[in-house]
Write a structure and sequence with these properties.
Elements (H helix, E strand, L loop, with lengths): L1 E5 L8 H15 L3 E5 L13 E4 L7 E2 L8 E6 L5 E4 L9 E4 L5 H22 L3 E5 H12 L5 E5 L2 H7 L3 H11 L4 E4 L2 H10 L7 E3 L14 H13 L10 H12 L3 H7 L12 H9 L5 E7 L6 H10 L5 E7 L3 H12 L3 H9 L9 H6 L7 E5 L3 H9 L3 E4 L9 H8 L3 E5 L2 H14 L6 E2 L5 H13 L3 H18 L2 H12 L6
Parallel strand pairs: 1-2, 1-8, 2-5, 3-5, 6-7, 8-9, 9-10, 10-11, 12-13, 12-15, 13-14, 15-16, 16-17
Antiparallel strand pairs: 3-4
Length: about 500
């Protein structure tokens, strides 16, 4: 089948990026001819891309010579200019980034029109039989305006609902326009689809669940020491570390906290490449490999909506205190490291400053802050690690925490961690709750893998962490083994790819 996939961003990092990459890879393996439209600047890094080019110069695409497969995948970059709209602010090399919430109408119109033209031309050149458009907005409206009789399926990811459609009427109207022309609308969970239908009731008859998958060949159990040393060895050869965060930046962040300088923290976020691993990441992982005791992990973006500050506050409350491995990137990282610094010093004034000048919250008492002294020695940051590095690193942790404040469409990170042998612990809401309920039912332990979010989320998280870490090593090993095997069977990209095609054909995926 000739399938065209429209995705507005890259192929690594965010959940929708990974989702897009994996379904294209899977369809290629299964023999389909796939054309992918996205803004990925380095297609040669992805071994499933056969050729790449730009939509305005389709005749001059470059063959890349990837691993052979039954099908073929070609990547084209639409010409959209220097402006890249996003749901949550992040930095993208080569682009001027602006959130959809702050996007002027004229810029929005130009962005949509550029993508409509690119999609229309690409579908005609490719002879596409089906289009899969990413996000209820903007992908759906771009597909409807670009295509005539060609069917298209829309995949909803959650950020489109929470950061665009729900908050501005113009995006609700555009989403309705696009969704009402779709053959089917898929979402990662029933929860995200229910939230969408509450906003656009007219599409209730065409929504269906197509859950994401997990790369079972990457995310697999591994002994901790070997996992950490293997990750460190891989990172030794990563040239991008030269652009990553340095020890000097860490010292500057500590000085900014000491001086109560919020502007300095914000400036630090732009002083290094957010998309690179930290320069000292290998040495940090080797030090961690030599230490005993439980290890708690986090994998994801370092933005306030992901709730990483709740995890840091929870660590301050735990006795004995586990070590923590925080894998991720984002411009809010400096504030999170600032919180670690403030707690490490037992400095209640610094904690108050950080809470006052940022969206973070903390209900730690002054006495609890003082008792948190020494926390920095137990917290290891790595910077951004793509899946090649993140998978073995996650296999090293006993518990992988997903403390998101934002309503999530699914909980891909929780499933990846589970497949790698970590026990997941998630905030019990939205799509995360669906994942937790499924996993808890599998082991007959309701509530074990989730905690109650809300005003006292850090305390609830700390209590749940204490419960998990109080299990004997034999108990944890038995639970993680059973859950890992289940996750690897239950969630696979082959099933996701099949569900999308089933939805396109008018069938139910449930």
């Amino acid at each position: 089948m000739r399938i065209l996939v429209w995705h507005g961003w890259l192929l690594e990092g965010a959940g929708s990026n990974v989702y897009t990459a994996r379904i294209v890879e899977t369809w290629r393996q299964e023999g389909h001819d796939v054309l992918l439209l996205c803004q990925e600047p380095n297609p040669e890094r992805h071994p499933f891309i056969d050729a790449a080019g730009a939509t305005g110069r389709i005749s001059s695409i470059q063959e890349l010579g990837p691993e052979p497969a039954a099908g073929r995948a070609v990547l084209l970059r639409p010409h959209i200019g220097e402006l890249l709209p996003v749901f949550v602010y992040d930095e993208y090399e080569g682009f001027r980034v602006r959130t959809f919430a702050d996007l002027p109408d004229q810029d929005l119109d130009a962005y949509l029109e550029a993508n409509v033209t690119a999609l229309r031309d690409a579908a005609r050149w490719h002879g596409s039989e089906l289009v899969v458009a990413g996000h209820a907005f903007p992908g759906a409206v771009i597909a409807r305006r670009a295509l005539q009789d060609l069917p298209y399926v829309v995949k909803v990811h959650g950020s489109d609902v929470e950061y665009a459609i729900r908050i501005q009427r113009r995006y609700l109207a555009l989403a309705r326009e696009g969704l009402e022309g779709a053959t089917a609308i898929t979402g990662a969970s029933r929860d995200v689809l229910d939230r969408l239908v509450a906003l656009v009731p007219s599409v209730a008859d065409r929504v269906t669940v197509a859950a994401p998958g997990v790369e079972a060949d990457r995310f697999r159990p591994m002994p901790r020491r070997r996992a950490l040393l293997h990750t460190a060895e891989l990172l030794d050869a990563e040239p991008a570390r030269r652009r990553g965060r340095t020890a000097d930046a860490a010292r500057a962040a500590a000085e900014a906290v000491r001086g109560r300088d919020a502007d300095a923290l914000d400036r630090l976020a732009g002083s290094y490449d957010q998309n690179a691993p930290d320069a000292p990441a290998p040495s940090r992982l080797r030090r961690l490999a030599d230490r005993d005791g439980p290890l708690v992990g986090y994998l994801g973006k370092l933005i306030v909506q992901k709730g990483v500050h709740h995890l840091i506050n929870a660590l301050a409350l735990l006795r004995p205190r586990p070590r923590a491995l925080i894998i991720g990137y984002g411009t809010f990282r400096e504030w999170l490291e600032g919180l670690v610094v403030a707690l490490d010093r037992g400095d209640a004034g610094a904690v108050s400053f950080l809470m006052d000048r940022s969206p973070m919250t903390s209900d730690l008492s002054p006495e609890e802050i003082v008792a948190a002294a020494g926390l920095a020695d137990d917290v290891t940051f790595t910077g951004r690690l793509n899946h090649r590095y993140a998978a073995p690193a996650v296999a090293a942790v006993d518990v992988l925490v997903v403390p998101s404040i934002l309503e999530e469409a699914f909980g891909m990170v929780a499933v990846e961690g589970t497949a790698a042998g970590a026990l997941p612990l998630v905030a019990r809401h939205s799509g995360l709750a669906e994942v937790a309920t499924d996993l808890e039912a599998r082991i007959g332990r309701p509530g074990l893998l989730s905690y109650q979010p809300g005003p006292h989320a850090a305390r609830s998280l700390a209590a749940s962490l204490h419960t998990l870490l109080s299990l004997t090593e034999a108990e944890r090993d038995a639970l993680s083994g059973e859950l890992s095997a289940y996750a690897r069977r239950r969630w696979g990209w082959q099933r996701t790819a099949r569900d999308l095609l089933t939805a396109a054909a008018g069938g139910s995926t449930s």
